[in-house]
Amino acid sequence: MERILVIKLSALGDFILALGSMAAIRKHHPDAHITLLTTRPYIDMAHRSGYFNKIEEDTRPGYFGFKAWKKLHAFFNDGSFSRVYDLQLNDRTSFYYKLFRDKPEWSGVVKGAALFYKNPAWRQMHAFMRHRKMLEELGIDMRVPDLSWMESDISLLGVKKPYVLFIPGSAPQHPEKRWPALKYAALGLKLMRDGYNIAVLGTAADADAVGKLVKACPGAIDLTGKTSLFDIATLAQGASAAVGNDTGPTHLVALTGCPLAVLFSGTTNPDLSAPVGAAVTIIQAQEIDGITVDDVMKNLHPRKTGVAA
Asked: How far, CA to CA in Å, does 41 sit from each of 75, 116, 231, 255?
């Protein structure tokens, strides 16, 4: 049996975008034994995707992590991998290539690799397109993945249709990516007058922004810290629409096909990092607070199904 290794370590948005690559690799190698090397936050998602026969955790050892390096070395060389798909494409995975005594067919950007991706402009490509082009060279057809397998019971969250999802957070180190919470609140009030319920997603790091939003938009449902990635995907599949900043959960919502307005500041190039999906609209201003509530209303196109009269 052919044994294949796929490497994708992080981060959330990048891992979500790589689901299309993973689905395409599984379809292209239906009878192969495929192992994913990833980090702990993505193990459950990888298991439940059905794309892999085995999941191996990478602890990303540091320079002096001798035991962890020894374990990785054994994993690579005892796995009998005939092909490796490097979807991480960074210096760490380039070093991993050197740990193989007998080099497998390696798809990636490591010089000397059998399946070296020759495009010199790969760093200037959107991650989704980078993987698509890399796999196309190997005869693998990659598309936006079907995420219908990402299901969970959201009945206890208290979200009633029709609803619009808000994703007002972002990584704490990137406050420039956050559209003001009070503008989200004003948008929520307009949508509620149109008959929609508002459900707000966030993590503990977003608590301040979400708190300001729900205080100024009474009736909005605060789901901070209450949703898994599977809950988010399920909510997105049932939502009329969503509005979000440039952050990981927004990428997940986009892939479900939910009509989505994504808000960008001028510090980010959407051509390189925009969420991928069937109904994504990009709204950008040099300073993100320059985006008006009317800008979002004009570019939000909710699904008609389930909309209140």
From this structure: 20, 29, 15, 19
